[in-house]
Amino acid sequence: MLFSSSPLLIDTLRQRRVKLSYLIDFPAILWSGRANSRNFPANIYPFRASSHFLYFAGFPLENAAIRLYEGRLELFMDNAPKDNALWQGETPQRDQIAELMGADAAYPLTELFNYLEDAATIVVQNPITANEQRQLLNCPLVSAKEPQGIDLELTQAVIHLRLTHDQFAINELRQAAEISVEAHKIGMKATKTAQLEAQVRAAMEGVIMSHNMTCSYNSIVTVHGEVLHNQQYHHPLQPGDLLLADVGAETPMGWAADITRTWPVSGTFSPTQRDIYHLVLKAHDTCIDSIKPGIEYQDIHRMAATVIAEGLVELGILKGTPEDLVEQDAHALFFPHGIGHLLGLDVHDMEDLGDLAGYEPGRVRSQRFGWCFLRLNRPLKPGMLVTIEPGFYQVPAILNNPKNRKKYKTVVNWKRLEQFADVRGIRIEDDVLVTEIEPEILTKNLPTSIAEIEALVQN
Amino acid sequence: MLFSSSPLLIDTLRQRRVKLSYLIDFPAILWSGRANSRNFPANIYPFRASSHFLYFAGFPLENAAIRLYEGRLELFMDNAPKDNALWQGETPQRDQIAELMGADAAYPLTELFNYLEDAATIVVQNPITANEQRQLLNCPLVSAKEPQGIDLELTQAVIHLRLTHDQFAINELRQAAEISVEAHKIGMKATKTAQLEAQVRAAMEGVIMSHNMTCSYNSIVTVHGEVLHNQQYHHPLQPGDLLLADVGAETPMGWAADITRTWPVSGTFSPTQRDIYHLVLKAHDTCIDSIKPGIEYQDIHRMAATVIAEGLVELGILKGTPEDLVEQDAHALFFPHGIGHLLGLDVHDMEDLGDLAGYEPGRVRSQRFGWCFLRLNRPLKPGMLVTIEPGFYQVPAILNNPKNRKKYKTVVNWKRLEQFADVRGIRIEDDVLVTEIEPEILTKNLPTSIAEIEALVQN
Ligand SMILES: [Mn+2]
Ligand SMILES: [Mn+2]
């Protein structure tokens, strides 16, 4: 990893912890976690520090902790053992790192034992570090989703801060978006000569890797876009297929992008693919145009559902009025997931906290078909970054479900639907920053129009 | 993942467990492990099943277990929940998988509770599954490196089997080698236009990814080859640099390759780089030529050390006779690591077991400088796959160490060494299968000669 600091970073980290000190009056200790071993201890998965740690510490330090109290930052980590230099080279020492992050003090990790009193924490993902957290703080700490007492207070304070992004974060998020845009363009260009999904994926992730970024999640690059979290890449590309690519980069400091585009393998959408693409794009554009402070994200979701229902009525696939159809959840037959989610240090930002971040206090997930997958349900505020990602899918598990066949017998024109068999899955996803004025689409340099996408694929 | 089976796979799995039944007379239960969560539960690192599980089960099933007893194979896993189909598509059911692997019976995971009696196991890497192993078997199970009682007996039996490879394994290992060779060739070709290490890395890993393989370890692609496990890729490529790339593929069933080449960024080795490259290559060739059944791997290591010492004497860097220098560990100033290791399902095969696999029973690691990093110390047998990877490095932590400066004051011509400042690190690594006759270099399609490497880079 690169340890590059700047006055802006140091100042940003200070502002974040000062803001935290306005919200809680007890110390917070945040652990970074450890690398996970893959098939043997020395063969590790690339280390990813806990996002809460990254937010206040900046650098992805392994097996470190920070203590935040009254605006002060104390770093706890061990220097690498001497014989490490042969294998890892000279790595920065604790005191150097402390200086780079603007810490007020720095101690070996064992010293943390003397700074635990009255401290709250958030449980990390790595089970070994999580166990250490439990032992050191001598409390159960079930999971980050169910914090209790001061841990819950800390969690709520961190959510409050991380819900809206400061300038430093926005700069990072823009960089992640920019490289992700480039990856998608290269993916489109690579499709012409590719025979397999895997080859397009390789081209796209290659762009991310060549900029020293990582993928912020496991890429989806598939001709079976109807499998929402498809992580297989072995299908051959056939001329009539649509390729759905959901690929995003993460900066070395952990800030994520999340983009989906869908393009025709042949370089030309079929008439039926154009029809469906247009309605998904209309939902996408309508939602983004509506993003402004104060609007409820669930209303944006409903808007997408309504536009999709409307489009499907126009195409003769659904029957009825869009509003009635949405009321019956008929849109969810084809658009079963939510319109998007928070984006930040995590691609589903703060999803380690369950719905504590995504849902306004007092709100809980709906049980309704479609609505149950809505990951964000809050009024939008300036500085929030959200994805907008409407889609249309023909999911066999949904459309062939006898209960759905019965319930939606009269509202779906199943015969007409058969004519759209070459549209298995389309999604269009962009990253949108809520501002006081116009929303800023961080991923706007990647086209969404059929003409521009076809041109990129044909190139 | 792909579930493709074949009569050869089913027969191979049966042979492996029948052989196991000749070695132990109690049941063995092997767990596959779980995916590790990265920054939130749904954002996981790509799942890698435990290698011991893969050896007997073939497929990388998540959160599954197999019970092996008297040549029988019983599979324990849960079918995916129904609503999983929306996110993951239709996945094969337990009974189908059982058939594909030739299992004798298949049960839900909870049934495992009734099959635990007298069973031995090997602790997996994933801490959550490891904890389940401990709870279910009601025993401490410290780590895979320190098995006790029947767990130790099982471990020794598995080592016995996995030390030499059957035909199915060799086919897989050849495929991993072939794609890794291709990755290195593309890496060499990509160097011409690359500005950063990261770009070469991306080109190389792109080849692996585009063949639906994964990296068997975190790639090393660096102009600072003297940092042995360098996993940073941010350095710019300068014309006078050597680029060291240690990159290997792993097949979907988990079989690994491990290749290192070192090439000049400019396409032409400098005279000093040629000199050192030649001596590393001579060590490489000498070692490979010596591989045959019965030879001690530590003698091959000593051979490499001697050839390197000899070459450094010829270049005027070391003073004395090669044998004396090796006796004093002077070679380790420049070749501090071991000549190689076992290769199979793990890139350092069975290193989860500590030295139980790498070291013949009764042998322990030397404390001596250089020798302490020898990972394999056994007589070779037909069917073993080992790496041969001599190197030359100028490691500041070693060469600037005052103790070494003093101890080796008279044997190193430090002034002469300064003339080789443009050689920070060179390693040449191939994967060599021990056979009754000639050793088979699985990675032989990747050239090692200066002329051929320069041609590939210049292309
Ligand atoms: Mn998304
Ligand atoms: Mn190796």
From TrEMBL, chains A, B:
CDD domains: Prolidase. SUPFAM superfamilies: Creatinase/aminopeptidase (SSF55920), Creatinase/prolidase N-terminal domain (SSF53092). One of its GO terms (cellular component) is cytosol. Its EC number is 3.4.11.9. One of its GO terms (molecular function) is manganese ion binding. Its cofactor is Mn(2+). GO terms for biological process: proteolysis. It catalyses: Release of any N-terminal amino acid, including proline, that is linked to proline, even from a dipeptide or tripeptide. Gene3D superfamilies: Creatinase/methionine aminopeptidase superfamily, Creatinase/prolidase N-terminal domain. Keywords: Aminopeptidase, Hydrolase, Manganese, Metal-binding, Protease. Pfam families: AMP_N (PF05195), Peptidase_M24 (PF00557). Residues 8-135 form the Aminopeptidase P N-terminal domain. Belongs to the peptidase M24B family. This is Xaa-Pro aminopeptidase. It comes from Planktothrix serta PCC 8927.
